[in-house]
């Protein structure tokens, strides 16, 4: 089975992933913890790493079953084919999500176009390309997904 990228309605990522899991479809919604401030308090909330997107591991013949869930919109396409995410990229996202893994990363002289060997940093993905760097932020291209992920250094 392959991992596909499924677009959801805005702010429905966690609900769609949960409903798909209840249907027996493997779904993964990568989350990150963020501190949000209101006028009277601060609170840690989990927000999706990929806004309006989740990853589903489903057989080709069962791809349309995901649309039985309210909030599922459509699949992402890349070069006129459904975007496929490798198992290694999913594992890398899971590594990034579990920031409690104790990995300390140092970044030295990252420039646009630099190929990063992510496996040296403790991730299971092999390689990513730096799109551009600004201050303490780095945009890395995940080529199998056709997507750019912004990382804070």
Question: Number of helical segments?
Answer: 2
Q: Structurally, how many domains make up the residues? A: 2
What gross morphology would you assign? Answer: globular
Give the N-to-C terminal Cα separation.
34 Å
The CATH superfamily of the largest domain is NusG, N-terminal domain
Helicity, as a percent range:
10-25%
Q: Architecture of the largest domain in CATH?
A: 2-Layer Sandwich
Beta-strand content estimate: 35-45%
- H-E order: EHEEEEEEEEHEEEE
The CATH class name of the largest domain reads Alpha Beta
Description:
The chain is 14% helix and 41% strand. The chain contains 2 helices and 13 strands; from the N terminus they run βαββββββββαββββ. It has helices at residues 13-22, 87-97; strands at residues 2-8, 26-28, 31-37, 42-48, 53-58, 72-75, 77-78, 81-82, 84-85, 115-117, 127-134, 137-142, 147-152. It is mostly beta strands. Strands 1, 2, 5, 6 and 9 form a 5-stranded antiparallel beta sheet that branches. A 4-stranded antiparallel beta sheet has the order 10-11-12-13, with no helix packed on it. A hairpin with a 4-residue loop joins β12 and β13. The chain has 2 domains: 1-85, Alpha-Beta Plaits (2-Layer Sandwich); 101-153, no CATH class.
């Amino acid at each position: 089975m392959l991992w596909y990228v499924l677009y959801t309605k805005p702010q429905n990522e966690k609900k769609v992933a949960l409903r798909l899991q209840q249907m027996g479809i493997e779904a993964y919604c990568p989350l990150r913890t963020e501190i949000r401030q209101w006028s009277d308090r601060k609170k840690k909330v989990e927000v999706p790493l990929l806004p309006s997107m989740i990853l589903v591991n489903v057989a080709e013949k069962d791809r349309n079953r995901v649309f039985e869930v309210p909030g599922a919109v459509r699949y992402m396409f890349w070069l006129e084919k459904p975007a496929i995410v490798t198992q290694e990229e999913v594992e890398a996202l899971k590594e990034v999500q579990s920031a409690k893994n104790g990995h300390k990363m140092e970044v030295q002289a990252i420039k646009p176009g630099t190929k990063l060997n992510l496996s040296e940093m403790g991730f299971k993905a092999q390689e990513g390309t730096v799109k551009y760097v600004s201050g303490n932020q780095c945009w890395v291209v995940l080529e199998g997904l056709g997507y750019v992920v912004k990382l804070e250094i």
